[in-house]
Amino acid sequence: MLPWLDWWWKQSFLQVRRAARPLPRSHCRSGFTSIATTPSRWTVPSVEMGQGISTALPMLIAEELEADWASIRMEFAMADRAFANPLLRQQGTYSSAAVRGFFEPLRQAGAAAREMLRRAAAEQWRAPVAECEVVNGHVTHRSGRRSNFSQLAEAAARLPVAANIPLKPRDQWRLLDKPMPRLDVPVKIHGSAQYGIDIRLPDMLIATIAACPVLGGTLKSVDPAPALAVAGVRHVVRLANAVAVVGSGYWQARKGLLALEPQWDLGANASLKSAEIESALAAALQDEGAEAEKVGDVNLGLQSSAQVVEAVYSLPPLAHAAMEPIAATAIVTNDRCELWAPTQGPIVAQLVASRIAGLKPEQVAVHTTYLGGSFGRKSDMDFIAQVVQIAKEVGRPVKLVWSREEDMQHDFYRPPATARLRAGLDASGGVVAWDVRLVSPSIMRRMVPARVTNGLDPTSVEGFTELPYAVANRRVAYVLKEVGVPVGVWRSVGNSISGFMNEVFVDELAHAAKQDPLTFRRALLAHKPRHRAVVERLATLSGWGQSLPAGRHRGLALHESFGSIVGEVVELLKQEAACASIASAASSTAVSPLIP
Amino acid sequence: MMPASSSRRTAAGMQREVDGDTPLLWVLRDTLGLTGTKYGCGIAVCGACTVHVDGKPARSCMLPIESVGDAVITTIEGLSADRSHKVQKAWIAENVPECGYCQSGMIMAAVALLTQNKTPSDADIDRAMSNICRCGTYHRVRAAIHRAAKA
Asked: How many CA atoms lie within 13 A of B30 on its CB side?
């Protein structure tokens, strides 16, 4: 039996250097890459929801390891602390941190493994290490000796872990600067990729669920008989705030669910209406809020300006609406729980499952499937708690599948947000003051309360603070206002709100200053070379400045988040009074430089 | 009612009893274990459930099995045994999928388009391809359709 090459465990000293405390040795002792076999097995520590990390992360190892890219079998890590993202210090996929967090450690691990394989070959062949070349999954020597990695793995594993190997300079990259064919594409064009909703197990039943339509409400009672009368329905399970029907298939379970008439206690939010939410947010604009940022003196700047421009923007809650509705599968016994879930947080899922099942986390095995989109939704654990509870009660493997309607209704929405932006322009169109007051419910107050300090949720104001435009006097204030809507992380979190509001507002300022919106931005980014480079590229790509045919209009926006700057120019074709279509779009991205 | 299928997976002739009102989608997924065809909306709006019924595209989430009769059903699994269909090859060459959940339906819709129109224009593609993709792969879908048309 060939040994696992337990890179991550053996290189735990690298993690100790980075992490606040050493990671415990995991009960699942496989490393990121097992090259004892061909094809080699590559364990991806983050989850694949379309963003491509199931290709990007293996690329990081493969580049340094000199692996044969054609013979990689990629799979996803189970819940296991050994696969913690060093940047997040947790096994989870969020905060745009997968490539950033693993960029150096995985390359170092690949380089160390490469050197150990080279040395193992050199020792076997009694040749100088420097004469042994590593390329494409093999070590070779000019004498004609040649071994592939799996032949050398056992010997290499016995060597001390190589350390401080210099990494390849950028001009020697084979893989990292090229668009590589994605490793997950073959299964995704063939129907064989397994998403959370696709799991099939022996003896499995399928459940679907309806939670109380009002947040905070509970289930008072439900007569299960109408559901049980439907052919194929086996169980009706009551949860604190929901009722689930379990049957031989989704269709049968859904028919059973629709036959029920659950009695809800709608709770404190019973009469909440959209209009109330909007007016509550608008009214809260009068509050001063918590100061998130202060540069110079905004009041003085506004007073001394030639022109003040003010606008109030309002965004409604936004559903994630991933193509794959919420689904997960669980088996719960007295001493074991096994979970298959499209989850962005396997360790948290393990913890939640263990609590519901009444087990220790070590007794819970979590498999991560492909995610049919997520955009942050599947980092919440509500559906994990549901499936474990249902499986525990039913005593058989259960796959829980939410209907599309349930998925849209029971989202953790991007927060509704209302903000007043005010800016002062001087006589020559420079911006002397920029003042933002944002009102919204807080995501962190629910998800990570410790991150909210003195009424400030830092994720709410991201993108408003650290405005790239050159403005001497700036202020950002945040009014935390709960409005009864459950809120969560929606891809880029605060940035899709601040990006929209900032960029629409900059256009208003350009208009007030009677300047072209691109020229206006360019002047305000004189001190920001990366932003300016994006603007210049957009100008070139879009032919900015060239006249447009009648009925066509052009606009641009750019925003920085998580270290990358994205800009777009869109051409709109005006069709009828309130209708336009996108005629074309140009996009330019400056990705955070991980290598200086 | 037994659904006939040209998919290789059921070529062995499975036989099951299902309620006549069960949509073809759930017969495929839950009864026959063919999970390549996806549930996205249940109201035939998103196209993730697209299969071929006697060679024509159909949204299986609202197609009761009792109305299928003896029609030949082709699912994504049945396009080829080895990813060799020219549309699948075009999808690989153009790196089309991201999360991939919509892609089974997208591919089946594209195959149906190319069967009916060998060299679709961009306007033809706009008209025929109404499948929803939340990741926004539309531009690569378009490129892959053009590529497959030339193959």
From this structure: 29
Instruction: Give the list of residues 6+ apart from residue A230 with CB closer than 8 angstroms, or none.
Output: A247, A252, A255, A256, A259
Angstrom distance (rounded) from CA A541 to CA A525 = 19
Is the CB of B135 less than 8 angstroms away from the CB of A190?
no
Rounded average pLDDT over A146-157: 92
Residues in chain A: 596
Shortest CB distance from A50 goes to which of B75, B98, B104? B98
- In this structure, are strands A473-480 and A431-440 parallel, antiparallel, or unpaired? parallel
Q: Smallest CA–CA separation between A248 and chain B, in Å?
A: 8
* Cβ neighbours, 10 Å, residue A361: 16
Give which of A443, A423, A395, A571 is closest to A501, Cα–Cα.
A423
For residue B18, the distance in angstroms to the closest alpha carbon of chain A comes to: 10
Q: Is A203 left (phi over 0), alpha (psi -120 to 50) or beta?
A: left
Q: Report angle CA A519, A522, A527 to the nearest 5 degrees.
A: 155
Confidence of residue B9 (pLDDT cuts 50, 70, 90): very low
Interface membership of B49 toward A (CB under 8 Å): no
ipTM value, please give it.
0.94
Both tokens assigned to A11 = 């290189």
Q: Is A188 in contact with B103 (Cβ distance < 8 A)?
A: yes
Q: Do B30 and A182 touch (CB under 8 A)?
A: no
Pick from A429, A440, A438: which is nearest to A501 by CA?
A: A438
Kindly give the pairing relationship between strand A398-401 and strand A327-332. Answer: antiparallel
Task: Select from A576, A577, A580 the least CA-distant residue to A554.
Answer: A580
**What does residue B29 show for φ and ψ, rounded to 5 degrees?**
-75, -50
State how far the Cα of A333 lies from the Cα of A9, in Å rounded to an integer. 30
- Cross-chain residue pair B101–A324, CB shorter than 8 Å: yes
Indicate the pLDDT class of residue A595, thresholds 50, 70 and 90: low
Alpha carbon of B135: minimum distance to chain A alpha carbons (Å): 7
Nearest to A190 among B22, B31, B83 (CB): B83
Q: Could you tell me if B65 and B20 are in contact, meaning their C-beta atoms sit under 8 angstroms apart?
A: yes
CB of A124 within 8 A of CB of A147? Answer: yes
| Chain A residues within 8 A of B30 when measuring between CB atoms | 206, 248-251
Q: Chain B closest CA to A189's CA: distance in Å?
A: 6
Q: Chain B: residue nearest A374 by CA? A: B99
Residue numbers in A near B135 (CB within 8 A):
50, 373
CB atoms within 10 A of CB B71: 17
Estimate to the nearest angstrom the gap between the alpha carbon of A458 and the chain centroid.
Answer: 17
- Are the beta carbons of A215 and A485 closer than 8 angstroms? yes
Partners of residue A325 in chain B, C-beta under 8 Å: 39-40
B-chain CB neighbours of A198 within 8 Å are 29, 35
Counting every residue, how long is chain B?
A: 151
Instruction: Give the list of residues 6+ apart from residue A567 with CB closer than 8 angstroms, or none.
Output: A534, A535, A537, A538, A556, A557, A558, A559, A587, A588, A589
At residue A158, the pLDDT reads 92
pLDDT confidence of residue A585: 76
pTM reported for the whole predicted model? 0.92
Burial of A39 per CB tally in 10 Å (0-12, 13-18, 19+): middle
Does A2 score more than 60 pLDDT? no
Contact between A328 and A375 (Cβ < 8 Å): no
> Which of A186-190, A297-301, A461-465, B1-5 has the lowest average pLDDT?
B1-5
List, for residues A445-482, the tens digit of each pLDDT value: 999 999 999 999 999 999 999 999 999 999 999 999 99
Contact A405, A419 (CB under 8 A): no
